[in-house]
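Morning!

This is the sequence you dropped in the shared folder:
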Amino acid sequence: MEDYSRRCSACAGRARCSGRGAGGGGAPGGAGAPGDAKGFWEEAPYAAAASGDDKANGGTGGDGGRGGDGGGCVVLAARGLLYLGANVNIDISASAPVSGQAAAANGGNGAPGGYGAPGMLKLHGSVVDVAKGANRPTVRADHSSGFAAEVNGKITFVTNMSQYALSFQVPNMSNSATQIGVAQNAPVLTEANTYLGGIAAPLIPQLSGGPATHGYLTGVFFNSPTVFATPPQSVVKGVQLIRLTGNASVYSGFDQIVLRNTNDVDLDKVAIGLSLIHISEPTRPY
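The structure's back. C-alpha cells below.
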C-alpha cells in the first residue's frame, strides 16, 4: 500500500500512514487513526474528508506462499557392484517456494513461502563405479536456501572402498554445496574369509558365482584395465600374481590380489601363500 503524508492544520505535524497485511493467512491492516475534533485534514488521499471519530481499516492482506517440499531420500543398493551408467540423472531437489498472493485493495501482499531442503542419495555397494567423461551421471539438489551444510542435499557412499578410490566416482552435481559422506555396512557388504582366518573381508563383485570374498572373475570386470596394466609380482608357468596395494587397491584396508592365467588351457593345483595361510584353487585362463 502506498504511504501518504498528510498535514493536520491543528498541530501542523506530519504523519505517515501505511497498512501492511501479514503473509500466510494475511492479517487485516491496522485501524486508521482517530480524527481530531478540533481540526481537519488539509490533504486527504480520498475525496471525502474524515469526520472526527471515524476510523478507516486497512485492506485484508494476501495469503502467504506455500513453502518448498523437501527432496526426500533415494537409495540405490547392491551387494557387489553398483554401477551408474552414462547420462544418468538423479534428482533430490526440493521444490521451489511459492510467492505470496496479491492483497485486496489497501492490504499487504502475502509473504513468499520458506525453502525446503534438498534430500539425500545413498549409493550402496561393495564397489561403486560411475561412467566417466562427458557422460558422467549428474545429481541434482536444487532450491536450497543457502550454502550451510544442513540446508543442502547429501550423497552418502555406503561401501568397502577407500576414500581415495571413491574420489574418482563422484557424480557431477548441480549444487556445489551438496555434502558427501562415507559409511560402511559390514553385515551386508563383508563376509568371513576362510583363507584369512575367518576375518570379515570385502565382497568382490562380478565373480562367476556372485559376490564373495574369493572366486573366479569374468574376463572383464570393474577395474580390469588397472589390474592388467599392473606389472605382476611374480609369474610361474604362465600364471601371473598381480597385487594392488595402497591407493592402487579399491578396498579400504585390504589389498586386491589376482591370479591371472595367461595360458590357453585351464590349470589346477595352483597355490598362493598369504603369510601363514595357504590357498589352493584351480585357475582359468582369461
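Headline: The first strand starts at residue 4 and ends at 7.

More detail when I'm at my desk.
O.
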